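Handout, section 3.2

Students often ask what a structure token actually looks like in practice. Rather than define it abstractly, here is a full record for RNHCP domain-containing protein. The first block is the sequence as you would receive it.
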Amino acid sequence: MPTVTESPKRFVRRREDFDCANCRKQVLGTGYTNHCPRCLWSRHVDVAPGDRLATCRGMMEPVGVLYERGEYLVTQCCVECGHLWQNRAASADSRNALHGLMGRAVKSPAASNGRRRPTER
Ligand SMILES: [Zn+2]
Ligand SMILES: [Zn+2]
């Protein structure tokens, strides 16, 4: 474990390489995303984006994908505690995986804070 000398209040960009616990792909961390570009799973490590303060550490299953204003938004649900999380997809993410999850009816975490929702089918 490297010593972190930065103030914990500041966003600290950390590159974290990890092995995907779902599909075993070796993922090279960019410092901004910690989900697997192949299967889109990640871990429940953040309370607010990037803070790594969650103690849950459960696997976050991708449950749906929205395409909004030129970006893919991946909704993940923690298999341990049911926490919903919405992530921007990275450019390295598998388009096949993203498209396979599009159109799934999911509860969007954005829906509860009054953000505009895409039209529902
Ligand atoms: Zn994976
Ligand atoms: Zn969790």
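Discussion prompt for tutorial groups: The helical segments are 95-101. How would you have guessed this from the sequence alone?
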